[in-house]
Hints:
The complex is a heterodimer of chains A (about 80) and B (about 220). Chain A has about 80 residues and is mainly alpha-helical.
Amino acid sequence: MNCKGVIREVSNYIDGELDLTIRQELERHLEHCEDCALILDQTRKSIEILCDSEPIPLSADVQSRLRAALRDKLSKKPA
Amino acid sequence: MLFLSGVSHLLSTADPHRLPSSIAREDEHLLVAAAKKGDTAAFEELVHRYESKIFRLTKNITGNREDAEDAMQDAFLKAYAHLDGFQGDSRFYTWLVRIAANEALMRLRKRRPGQLSLDEPIEGDADLMPRELEDWRPSPEREYAQAEMQGILAEVIEKLEPEYRIVLVLRDLEELSTQETADALGISVTAVKSRLLRARLKLREKLNRHFRQGGTN
């Protein structure tokens, strides 16, 4: 497997979705290719950083509009 | 049933947002069941629990605060209207994410008529090979204050093309499976994987500009 082959599969590799043979080929390449190992490492790290993204609190105005719309809807739906 | 009516009773108190911690997390299905039976306070608790996450989702998809607010509100209203149709074969939150993603996508398409095609095959892979290869500073996530890191992430996500950031947000941030993402967007699993690969590589490249050694931005 060459560098392009590794990059094509890097996302599937991170998700653990590669067949054993392809995974082993990819890992053999990583053993001697620093560039691909760096890309894999930084892509993984990027996903981790993205996962740390925080929810966005609603402003008081938006929250009160949402509450009002909900109460309006909730009061109309039969139980 | 005793526990359920207990939940309903607690949620029907003046402030439904102050739940005892013992039932505050693992009770989603109880809240959904109570809401389905007409317990409006139970549904309000679900809204309270997920509103800031759903707002993050709609903001990330639309890239526009006003659209994100409207999409979030309509998502909750639709979820309530269609609650009877929720079968419980996925988490309520996953179901809600699908509704909210759809609302956000509708608004994005209105702003960009004819420009957003999620299922269009990606031609070739000339753009695939990363160009910027530099070591990152060790533990960049610890170097930045939380607010600063959130700012960097918001900027980076906004700069991604919508067809990439939508898949990235659903798969990696909302943790939908590949199949759930495909179902939510009405595209094939192959298309999800192809866009996710590019989205992740683009995310790395954009973060690289912030985190590379010796770089300031």
